[in-house]
């Protein structure tokens, strides 16, 4: 395993999270280096989405540290974490149906940039420094949605909504993007196109991705961490993960895209 000299962009240190009496995360350690594609894999129910909830501020870890860019963000509200440059893609939860495609992107860009200085007024934010419209147009082009620019989001096809949703996560020039199963529910061809698009969108960014198609994981990821029952049991380069005994035991031969939902053995 490499021992990078740079401090990690994101570091979770002994993070625990309980929901009521249920302990979901039991001391998660995770280091994501600047610029890498880092996959977080593990059986269903391992706690992957909960790790994302804790990183993005949706849940507050009871103990441990969540360091982003050198600062502890545990307990910081989600919108403030977003403005510090850590974003998360959601599935069809954050689109404004009644607004146009371009306005959805503009709002995301504006929200991400807004109030980096608390004293800013809305119009100073709108008028200075940040070219929100230019950024929205650039994302529109990357997403292949320029022709749909002024259509209401409600009129988009499902696949286009999914694309737009991914695009929102890249608005505001985040340094770290969390993607939780971005191709879930897609056909094989749609998933391939989405992965290609994600590569372009994510140029120059750091990505932490939860993905259960192991072909995609081993194609994209430079580093893989494996979560099982609320603990990271292995973390390393893809080849090291593939041959890790404990990982093989937990997956019980399920490193196949055809069987993503296979539960871990007892
Ligand atoms: N609010 C909650 N209360 C109790 N258990 C929960 C809650 N949310 C999630 N869980 C449980 O925590 C475990 C981890 O869930 P999740 O993070 O969604 O796993 P993954 O994304 O790896 O499939 C699951 O067993 C799930 O049932
Ligand atoms: Mg999940």
What does this structure look like?
- The chain has 266 residues and is an alpha/beta fold.
- It has 2 domains: 1-85 and 175-256, Rossmann fold (3-Layer(aba) Sandwich), CATH 3.40.50; 92-174, P-loop containing nucleotide triphosphate hydrolases (Rossmann fold).
- The chain is 35% helix and 23% strand.
- It has 10 helices and 10 strands.
- The protein has helices at 48-56, 78-83, 101-113, 122-127, 132-143, 158-170, 188-201, 214-220, 238-242, 245-251, and strands spanning 10-19, 22-32, 37-41, 63-68, 71-72, 86-89, 176-180, 206-210, 223-228, 231-236.
- Helix 7 links the parallel strand 7 (176-180) and strand 8 (206-210).
- Helix 3 (101-113) crosses helix 5, helix 3 (101-113) runs parallel beside helix 6 and helix 6 (158-170) packs parallel to helix 7 (188-201).
- The longest helix is centred in the C-terminal third of the chain and has 14 residues, at 188-201.
- It is globular, with a radius of gyration of 19 Å.
- The two termini are 29 Å apart.
- Magnesium ion is lined by residues 48-49.
- Magnesium ion binds next to helix 1.
């Amino acid at each position: 395993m490499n021992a990078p000299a740079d401090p990690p962009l994101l570091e979770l240190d002994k993070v625990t999270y309980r929901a009521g009496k249920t302990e979901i995360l039991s001391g998660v350690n995770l280091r994501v280096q600047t610029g890498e594609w880092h996959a977080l894999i593990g059986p269903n129910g391992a706690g992957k989405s909960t790790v994302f909830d804790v990183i993005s501020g949706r849940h507050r870890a009871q103990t441990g540290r969540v360091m982003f860019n050198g600062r502890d963000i545990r307990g910081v509200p989600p919108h403030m974490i977003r403005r510090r440059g850590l974003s998360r893609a959601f599935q069809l939860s954050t689109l404004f149906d009644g607004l146009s495609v371009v306005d959805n992107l503009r709002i995301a860009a504006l929200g991400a940039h807004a109030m980096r200085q608390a004293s800013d007024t809305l119009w100073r934010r709108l008028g200075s420094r940040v070219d929100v419209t230019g950024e929205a147009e650039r994302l529109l082009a990357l997403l292949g949605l320029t022709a749909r620019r002024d259509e209401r989001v409600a009129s988009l096809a499902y696949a286009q909504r999914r694309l737009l949703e991914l695009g929102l996560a890249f608005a505001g020039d985040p340094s770290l993007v969390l993607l939780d199963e971005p191709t879930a529910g897609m056909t094989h061809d749609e998933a391939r196109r989405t992965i290609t698009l994600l590569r372009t969108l994510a140029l120059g960014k750091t990505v932490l991705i939860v993905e259960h198609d192991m072909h995609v994981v081993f194609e994209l990821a430079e580093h893989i961490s494996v979560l099982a029952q609320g603990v990271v049991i292995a973390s390393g380069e893809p080849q090291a993960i593939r041959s890790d005994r404990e990982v093989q035991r937990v997956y019980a031969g399920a490193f196949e895209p055809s069987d993503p939902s296979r539960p871990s053995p007892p």
